[in-house]
Amino acid sequence: MPPSGTSRRFLGILFDLTGRRVMEEELRVLHKNQAIGTLIAGLAHNFNNLLVGIVGPLDILGQRRLNAAETERWLEIARNAADQAALLVRELRALSSPGTAHLEPVDLGAVAAQAVDLVTSASDRRIEFRLEVEPGTPHGLASRSGCQQVLLNLLVNARDAVVERMAKDRRPAGAIEVVISPDAARRLVTVEVRDDGIGIPRELR
């Protein structure tokens, strides 16, 4: 208690944080919308790649007279693309349930072969696609559809780079190679996609 006849003073400072909190919430919503936009763009790109693998073989079947074996081959390519689209949809549904991503032993050589077939069916015939799987390469623990999407994206980007280079220097052909090999030291399986396309500009590397 203060002595009799004395007074006590208090100094207080109040800050109104309402405006700051509103701005923080708006920024959070903006970041969320940007993330959703990026996700949607990526999904559209992936689905477009799969549609190329479905529509391309069907166009070929409609334009050419093929024997039974060739017809079955192109139908199988289209079926594989449709199966991959279904897997992608299932994985998107799993995003709402954390921890449900399906990992399994994946034969990356087989996955790469399907991806190469899909892109080959929708590419200039002057582009040669090659697949090399090193003997003894083990299966990798991964999402099969995720691996398929990554390979499709890499192959489509490589194809576009080769087409652009062919248009610029008028060379009549191009090459894209997929190499799969084990990395025993790191217990990994590596996948490389090589092409003789235009390349990435130095300033973007």
Structure commentary:
By secondary structure, the chain is of the alpha+beta class. Helix content is 55%, strand content 15%. It has four helices and five strands, in the order H-H-E-H-E-E-H-E-E. Strands 2-4-5 form a three-stranded mixed beta sheet, with helices on one face. Strands 1-3 form a two-stranded antiparallel sheet. A hairpin with a 4-residue loop joins strand 4 and strand 5 (188-195).
Walk me through the topology.
Blueprint: H1 18-63, H2 68-94, E1 104-106, H3 108-121, E2 127-133, E3 140-142, H4 144-169, E4 174-183, E5 188-195
Parallel strand pairs: 2-4
Antiparallel strand pairs: 1-3, 4-5
Helix pairs in contact: 1-2, 1-3, 1-4, 2-3, 2-4, 3-4
Shape: elongated
Order of H and E elements: HHEHEEHEE
Arithmetic mean of pLDDT: 80
- Low-confidence region ranges: none
Order of strands across the main sheet: 2-4-5
Which structural traits does this protein have?
alpha+beta, three-stranded mixed sheet, 15% strand, elongated, 5 strands, single chain, two-stranded antiparallel sheet
In short:
Helix content is 55%, strand content 15%. By secondary structure, the chain is α+β, with helices and mostly antiparallel strands.
